[in-house]
Amino acid sequence: MSEAVVVGSGPNGLTAACLLAEQGISVTVIEAAERPGGGTRSTELTLPGLIHDECAAIHPMGVASPAFEALGLERYGVEWLWPEVDVAHPLDDGPGGAMYRSVERTAEGLGEDGPAWLSAFRANAEAFGELREEILGPIVHFPRRPLELARFGLPSLRSAESYARRFSTDRGRALFAGSAAHSFRPLSAPMSASIGTALITAGHAFGLPVARGGTQAIADALLGLAAGRGVTVETGRRIGDLGELGGPDLVLLDLAPQGVLELARGRLPGRIERAYRRYRYGPGSFKLDLAVEGGIPWKDEACRKAGTVHVGGSIEEIAIAEAEINRGRMPERPFVLVGQQYLADPSRSVGDLHPLWIYGHVPSAWPGDASDAILDQVERFAPGFRERIRATFTRSTLEFPRYNENYVNGDIAVGENSARQLLFRPRVGLDPYSTGMPGVFICSQATPPGGGVHGMCGWHAARRAIRHLERA
Ligand SMILES: Cc1cc2nc3c(=O)[nH]c(=O)nc-3n(C[C@H](O)[C@H](O)[C@H](O)COP(=O)(O)OP(=O)(O)OC[C@H]3O[C@@H](n4cnc5c(N)ncnc54)[C@H](O)[C@@H]3O)c2cc1C
């Protein structure tokens, strides 16, 4: 029987393990942390009974994932719950923007920008179900639907600022910019529109749900599935050298390129080692988990019903904040994401005490405490918010890598979303999952299709590994 070891138990590592085990391969997953799941763990971080998502919270890519669909995660307990409003974006002056799963309803709310929103996203959202397998994989491939793929992909080559010019109102531009800012890139950078267009398109096709009981439900489903296929999971064991693994037929590394370099210790072919050393990491995040009595008193009504609120004001203000963090400077008004998962999933609250998931974009390795800057941003659109906070948990850019060492210098996206790394990650080449070491593959979010809880990096890497075994 062939043997495989997967190092790291994030959603990509666990997806890879499930797929390998399905082929009759004996699989062991080895995880440094005491609890498996990587970015899909949920914990009572503030007060007893309040369930906080430690990392991932909102799952447009999870519900759309062909890998999760094929694995049948719903049968293992994942239940998606949608908020009434998917994304809200408050503004200082005038009504903010609101995004619903229905592209038509979103357009109706955007007034004179409604037709531009429809023309930007409706056709792509309708095609997304068919295109998702191609979009959620390596860029270099033989396209099955070239025309639809081109209509989806070509506008994404633009900068977010240039893409947003199709909208004429502040709220239309801001609603787009909030999603584009998920890239952590300056909004003037080439391809900085791409993550925004992908998220909005997926959101209109599948919505932005949360998982009942916390994102942990996704980890638990993958672990249940893996256990049923005979996978062994060892926790609390950090691997520092590939030599510790013995001689399995396959090794899949759910690690940042920096981790692969450490484990390989000179075994990588020179050109791949150089490419991994050149791999660039992006800005950092500062996370705040709060217990808030009565929730956030947003002035904007849509914000009170939204699963996700993008807090950063106008596109111009977001552009300044994102440019600053990319220059290594902490902005006075950072871009902030607020998750109100409890609105769709009340089981996470205790009475009128609700868990709030918030993070702000900060420079890479920024050592400070961004709590005040982040809270000020929310308070600006929700006066009286601070008075409702009953407990706080924070995680800085220095603490993130201690929690999960893939988050190099607090980069939760595990790699800068520059045009080069959006097209080719973790290196330029036809086989992004190959490390050049026979039988050893990289399967983390540093590979295509990149960040998010979708398992597709693990899915593609495992398929590649299985082909390697068949040829050996
Ligand atoms: C604050 C935050 C918010 C996020 N929000 C969202 C969101 O709303 N929606 C979404 O889809 N995504 C979100 N993400 C991103 C999502 O969590 C990641 O894209 C996803 O978890 C990546 O999965 P992965 O399997 O590649 O790696 P990870 O989940 O990072 O797992 C890697 C695992 O490898 C382990 N490991 C590392 N080194 C070693 C070693 N040497 N030996 C053994 N084990 C090791 C780590 O401990 C970790 O458990 C968020 C992330 C963060 C941090």
What does this structure look like?
- The protein is an alpha/beta fold.
- The chain folds into two domains: 3-40 and 211-279 and 412-471, FAD/NAD(P)-binding domain (3-Layer(bba) Sandwich); 80-210 and 282-402, Polyamine Oxidase, Chain A, domain 2 (Alpha-Beta Complex).
- The chain contains 18 helices and 16 strands.
- The chain has helices at residues 11-22, 60-64, 66-71, 103-109, 114-135, 146-153, 160-164, 170-180, 194-206, 216-228, 257-264, 270-278, 301-304, 315-326, 371-381, 400-403, 419-423, 456-471; strands spanning 3-7, 26-30, 42-43, 52-53, 80-81, 85-89, 97-99, 210-211, 232-234, 250-253, 284-293, 306-311, 336-339, 353-362, 389-395, 440-442.
- A seven-stranded mixed sheet has the order 7-6-12-13-14-11-15. It has a five-stranded parallel sheet with strand order 9-2-1-10-16, with helices on one face.
- The longest helix is centred in the first third of the chain and has 22 residues, at 114-135.
- The structure holds flavin-adenine dinucleotide.
- Flavin-adenine dinucleotide is lined by residues 7-13, 30-33, 38-40, 55-59, 61, 238-239, 254-255, 259, 285, 287, 359, 404-406, 412, 444-445, 451-453, 457.
- Flavin-adenine dinucleotide binds at residues 7-13, 30-33, 38-40, 55-59, 61, 238-239, 254-255, 259, 285, 287, 359, 404-406, 412, 444-445, 451-453, 457.
